[in-house]
Amino acid sequence: MVKAYIGIDVGSVSTNIIALDEDNEVLFKLYERTNGQPLETIKKGLKKLRDELGKNIIVSGVGTTGSGRQLAGVMIGADIIKNEITAHAVATVHYVPDVRTIFEIGGQDSKIILIKDQMVVDFAMNTVCAAGTGSFLDHQAERLGIPIEEFGKLALTSKNDVRIAGRCTVFAESDMIAKQQYGFSKADIIKGLCNALVRNYINNLGRGKKLEPPYVFQGGVAANIGIKAAFEREVGHEVIVPKYYNVMGAIGAALLAKEAVKEKGKTNFRGFDSLKTNFVPSSFICTGCSNMCEVIKVEMDGTPIAMWGDRCGMWTEKVKQAM
Amino acid sequence: MKVGIPKALLYYYYGPFWEILFEELGMEVVVSDDTNKKLINEGIKASVPEICVPIKIFIGHSIDLAKKNVDYIFVPRMVSIYKGEVFCPKFMGLPDMIRHGVEGMEDKILTCHIKSKNDDISDYRNYIDVAEKLKISHDKLKKACEVASEKWYRFREYNKKGHHILEAIDMVNNDIKLESIKKYDNDVKLGVLGYVYNMYDGFVNMNVIDKLKDLNVDFVTFDMLDENELRKYIDDMDKVLFWTFSNKLLGAGYKFFRENEVDGVIHITAFGCGPDSFLGKLFEIESDDTKVPFMTIRVDEHTGENHLQTRIEAFVDMIRRKKAKAVMGG
């Protein structure tokens, strides 16, 4: 039996689950599409973890991160619920201690994190525009009839520079069609697309920031060697893609959970059996004042166990007191 | 007669003075509601689109007061409170902007020129235009200014002893006696820099003060510092900024960065603020020089709360983690 620390990153596109041992080695790794059902995805993922490792491990700490971190944290009894900036940075610093710049591109959002002396000194997040994210690439790969896995490799074979407008997915697409009609090869166009995506990312998120090496590139899109090469061209320097590039948030959450448990002595983990409990999330518009907050409520077997989203904190407090 | 005071812009600095002033003049004083979604939406609708959100909020508060059937809405023309410096043009043009830009306001605006050598704007001559419109004698005005001034100084005294402005206003209004200087006992102390109307309007900044409290973080602000301290680090500059409150923030920022008394500095700024484009850059340079972490929080009417929560959490987290590491000798 070994001690294991679980990290869960609940994002809009994927839900990632990681188990680390006492020496921070990865025992279990799962990258699963969320498909708009975070609760079900977490349950399924944890069941898999239990089936694979269940008899050999003692869960000694659990951490959650990502946009669904509150919900996941309440559900399984997390020792720590952390924002994704900290979680990503902690994991990256663990693997690349002297990192200065982290490029993180996920399915629907992207961030840039600047680090100095292993500390986050600045960061930016893109939350509205999808032009620089994974779903944009997915879409274009499909349109060109190239499996997304081949996308990056093909870009590397190109010898020509084609400039594709990267400001917006819509313009990028019409520009690509035009360039195809001029007779550029698919490889050239894909390379142009990779450059456009990186240019757009740097313009949006890196504006006014001094980006210094070592650079680390992570998130689901880091699988794409074409984008990696485009980043290297843009910054004029080697860009490191860590081994567990697509689950770094979950690894960070696990590392943070380990730390948190060390401090307080025991874990709040509800146990795998708790997954059978019936959790029901719902939301309502509070009409208490003219702010009209959307309040999220999670019920466990009919009893509210967590509420958030209220600006005044009235509902949040009520549940806390009742617990 | 009912006089309305918008709970916006410099209300968070001079409110304690203006409220007493009008009460002493025999007016029924109506203060607008706390900023809320409805009020801000009405302000946005009535404003020119490109103006900053604090002004839109002020206009929303003015509309709120008009609905409360006040006879007048007090909108002073803030010109100068320091020799050679002025206010942002939007402050100087505020009465005109509302009188001519917002429907139904023409006869409601009660205004006057505020010009002063320092923060103390209690000189009765500043308010002569108001007294004349309200048909009040100069003697009565003089007396009212004296009474209001006494209260304002008390408010500033509490504020300078480490209680933030909302606490200080509360203490003065409820006649709470001040025992001593506020003590800080959390492990993290931040300098938070922002104009009073961005810093203390919990709606526009999504309760930054509460969020810091929830994270067990202490903070100091420019308004807690004495004028001498604020000017200490900018006096030797070749040229300061044009705007007094920007200079106050700059002086406070330089002090926070250079005297090594805070673990990090947060600048809260409204999207599109001209003066803050200078300030922000100066703070950035200072942060690079002193190695004190710095973060900008930009607020406007579309700010997402999750995003803000994540940013503040991440900033405080990293300070704590760095400290823990230093303790362990890592």
UniProtKB/TrEMBL annotation, chain A:
The entry's keywords: Iron, Iron-sulfur, Metal-binding
Cofactor(s) the record lists: [4Fe-4S] cluster
Domain ATPase BadF/BadG/BcrA/BcrD type: 6-257
GO MF annotations, alphabetized: iron-sulfur cluster binding; metal ion binding
Pfam families: BcrAD_BadFG
Listed InterPro entries: ATPase_BadF, ATPase_NBD, CoA_E_activase_dom, Dehydratase_Activator_Redct
Residue ranges that the Swiss-Prot or TrEMBL entry lists as coiled coil: none
PANTHER family the UniProt entry points to: ACTIVATOR OF 2-HYDROXYACYL-COA-HYDRATASE, BIFUNCTIONAL PROTEIN [INCLUDES 2-HYDROXYACYL-COA DEHYDRATASE (N-TER) AND ITS ACTIVATOR DOMAIN (C_TERM)-RELATED
Record protein name field: 2-hydroxyglutaryl-CoA dehydratase
From TrEMBL, chain B:
Cross-referenced Pfam families: DUF2229 (PF09989), HGD-D (PF06050)
UniProt superkingdom: Bacteria
UniProt KW keywords: Kinase, Transferase
InterPro entries: CoA_activase_DUF2229, Dehydratase_Activator_Redct, FldB/FldC_alpha/beta
Domain DUF2229: 2-225
PANTHER family: BIFUNCTIONAL PROTEIN [INCLUDES 2-HYDROXYACYL-COA DEHYDRATASE (N-TER) AND ITS ACTIVATOR DOMAIN (C_TERM), BIFUNCTIONAL PROTEIN [INCLUDES 2-HYDROXYACYL-COA DEHYDRATASE (N-TER) AND ITS ACTIVATOR DOMAIN (C_TERM)-RELATED
Protein's name in the database: Predicted nucleotide-binding protein, sugar kinase/HSP70/actin superfamily
Species name: Caloranaerobacter azorensis DSM 13643
